[in-house]
Amino acid sequence: MHAALGAARRSISPKYFYDARGSQLFDAICELVEYYPTRTELGLLRTHAGEIAALAGPQAEVVEFGAGSLRKVRLLLDALDRPAGYVPIDISGEHLAQAAQQLRGDYPGLAVQPVVADYTQPLQLPAGPHKTGMRLGFFPGSTIGNFDPEQALRFLRMAARVLRGGALLLGADLVKDPAVLHAAYNDGAGVTAAFNLNLLARANRELGMDFDLDGFAHGAFYNSPRRRIEMHLVSRRAQRVQLDGQAYLFEEGETLHTENSHKFSVDSLRALAVEAGFTPGPVWTDPNRLFSLHWLASPA
Ligand code: AVJ
User: Fold this and answer.
1) Looking at ligand 1, which residue's alpha carbon is closest to its atom 1?
2) pLDDT per residue over 240-264, tens digit each?
3) Distance (Å) from CA 29 to ligand 1 centroid
4) Where would I find the H helices in 62-131?
5) Residues 263/173, Cβ–Cβ less than 8 Å
6) Nearest CA to ligand 1 atom 5
7) Which mutation among 195, 259, 291, 292 tests ligand 1's pocket best, with the greatest number of atoms within 8 A of CB?
8) DSSP states of 154-196 as a string?
9) How far, in Å, from the CA of 290 to the mean position of ligand 1?
10) What is the mean pLDDT of the chain?
11) From the CA atom positions of the chain, what is the Rg in Å?
């Protein structure tokens, strides 16, 4: 937070949204009518589960990056031929432990090994069960869009290495009518605003800060040249906040940039994957071309 507030252009990684409350709010976002990505991707997974399972082969070990509430992976696990293991990786430990426990109850034969970690940092995966099929990475939700292009490339290179001889099933949100994008991040019920503002509430709770939550507004807009939604917390007035006894001033209208959500074309995503060492396979999109699901093989 000192680094975020000390910078000339204030910004903080969106990974800090996901404390227990933030993860709950994100799950609520996924249910919003304006927020098309979740239901569209779930539809793609349902429609193409058979093809995906055929590509994965028997006894795959599924590794999910940023596992969240584990709703999507159930579609995958249900379709796969005797999946051998499941390694959900998530930064929100409490949320992950709960979700993993539920999943164990529903898939008695499956070795579920949750890893509480930040997958943008070097990480060690637990040794999988013996005699498994391919290692199948799962990175849904267009979380890849949170990364800058260079960070996305770094992530994909790491994934290609971890998944060598296997594949990555990746969800990527597509470039589209800005009005549709705008609505998805400015929902009428204000859930996205609450999600954004929870970052300040979390800083108050965990860092003893004194953000006035009424003093900041949710700001989200589509930056067309950069093909990304930007979310900011916008100071409604000149004000000061303190962290560890150090004061930081916000001018009226000054922002803390909290998230980028990049949008892709099918070709731009595939080109990025090639650059990272993957061999792109099939791509599935919905009829309205809102969202894309990519099979990316990682050569042995
Ligand atoms: C989880 C990063 C995919 O960018 O759409 C949803 C997060 N932020 N609404 C996205 C989010 C605001 C979401 N990702």
Assistant:
1) 143
2) 999 999 999 999 999 999 999 999 9
3) 9
4) 71-79, 93-106
5) yes
6) 261
7) 259
8) HHHHHHHHHTTTSEEEEEEEBP--HHHHHHHTS-TT-HHHHHH
9) 15
10) 95
11) 20
Please state the φ and ψ torsions of residue 185, each to the nearest 5 degrees. -110, 5
Index of the ligand 1 atom closest to the CA of residue 196: 12
Task: List residues bridging with 256 in a β-sheet.
Answer: 233
Query: Ligand 1: which residue has its CA nearest to atom 4?
Result: 261
DSSP 212-266: -GGGEEEEEEEEGGGTEEEEEEEESS-EEEEETTEEEEE-TT-EEEEEEEE-B-H
CA of 118 to the centre of ligand 1 (A): 17
Residue 62 main-chain phi, psi, to 5 deg:
-95, 130
pLDDT in tens, 198-225: 999 999 999 999 999 999 999 999 999 9
Specify the DSSP element, H or E, that contains 85: strand 85-90
Residue ranges lining ligand 1, Cβ < 6 Å: 29, 37, 141-143, 145-146, 185, 192, 259, 261
Residue in this structure with the two tokens 């929870």, named with its chain if needed: 198
